[in-house]
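Annex B. Sample input.
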Amino acid sequence: MNKAGSTKTAEGIQKIMIENRYTKVSFGNEVRKRLKECYMTQQSLAKAIGVTRETINRIVTGKSEPGYDTIPGLQSVLKFSDNDFIWCRVGTKEKYRYEFFDQAAQRLGSIDKVIEITEAIYDQFPSVDDEANYGDPKKWRYFQRKFPEFGAVVWHEDKAVAYWFCLPVNDNIYDQLLAGENVNLSITPQDTPRITDGKTCLYFVDLMVLEAYQNKMPGKYLRESFLSFVLKKAKGGTLFHRIVANLTSEPAVSVAIGFGFHELGEHEVHLMKSDIEKNICPAKIYEMVLDPNIKDLKPFLYDPELKREFNKRWRSS
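Annex B, continued. Sample output.
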């Protein structure tokens, strides 16, 4: 995947110890307890924070973790803290969880610490000539600072093992990406529009998974975090209806297909000067189209609430 050139970080940057405060079951029990203290029902809580009663019931019964779209409401109504939601993202068998960049920045003290973590993941892979592919790394760090909610890190216990990052882009940049052009050298802050209501295009810039974890759970958490991000933005009025990715490695392709991306067959091929084997490799362009009028789209099958939100806003956007 595309990634800005990075610098080596201090040994152990990923070893940030986490106290796993909640599991899904214990978090659900805590929600149940606080509902009683507030003399609220699951239905009244659902209405107060703008989700379905089914969503709240799945959280209370320990079947689902709180999604990114429900967190602000649970904080406001039931007085949970940010740390409560960081700790509760723990799988039942393997202790994976995700944090959005802005959440991690709040916990760690700065977005620059999050950037160091993502660069440490990138540094696990051989690189031939980053700046020839991506341009000045300072530009990409600027984008991560400007759009901290547009990325997520997946953790396994105390180790960062994967992340994704994307950017809103204008139609011109999007069309260049679809044509197979390498826009990484030329893209500027002026090419990333201000987020407004309506349909907007996304450039899925980065998708990195440590080699030792490529056949394990991170793909699920990468997908879940990304679709939660898209849902949150849709509820705010922004529909990311077209998303393009420039992929060069098979592990990234596998994860992206799981997201719902499909390969575009006809486009110009530019060469990326790095991959896991240090080969010169052709870029492959993948796209995800989120149109509620198209049947059986993977993202909508994964998350019916996402489809409902797109249906509600599609005609007016």
